[in-house]
Amino acid sequence: MTGITTHVLDLVLGRPAVDLPVVLERQDDDGAWRPLGSATTDGNGRCANLLPAGAPFVAGIYKLVFDTGRYFRAANSDTFYPRVTVEFTVEDEKQHYHVPLLLNRFGYTTYRGS
């Protein structure tokens, strides 16, 4: 498991959001965003390997970009949010950062999990 993971739950269906693409980025010192890794949620709605093996995990500002539009299109549904972007601060790279997303077609919520 890497330092950053996520878990996406589809609240309308009451089950994990499977095959939802997720991109992890970090903000450089100049403010530009640099992609670090990507994955698609597994059968449990989880991404455990967003940071590639050997990639440095350092303090800074990160973001997860969830391609919710693609997920809902695959389910033959529309959505108000084609993408959900969650920015967060990593203060201690020795800690684990779990960022769940609770999702429906017209809303979402997130929090720092464990």
Task: List key phrases describing it.
114 residues, mainly beta, Immunoglobulin-like, four-stranded antiparallel β-sheet, 1 helix
Which residue ranges are poorly predicted, with pLDDT under 50 across at least 5 consecutive positions?
Answer: none
Helix residue percentage: under 10%
Radius of gyration: 14 Å
Q: What is the third-level CATH name, the topology?
A: Immunoglobulin-like
Provide the succession of SSEs.
Answer: EEEEEEHEEEE
Number of separate helices: 1
The CATH homologous superfamily name equals Transthyretin/hydroxyisourate hydrolase domain
Overall number of domains: 1
Going by CATH, the architecture would be Sandwich
Give the C-level CATH assignment: Mainly Beta
Could you describe the largest sheet, including whether it forms a barrel?
6 strands, mixed
Got a strand count?
A: 10
Q: Helix/strand/pairing class, anyone?
A: mainly beta
Residue-averaged pLDDT = 95
Shape label: globular
Strand content: 35-45%
What is the subunit organization of this protein? single chain
Cα(first) to Cα(last) distance is 12 Å
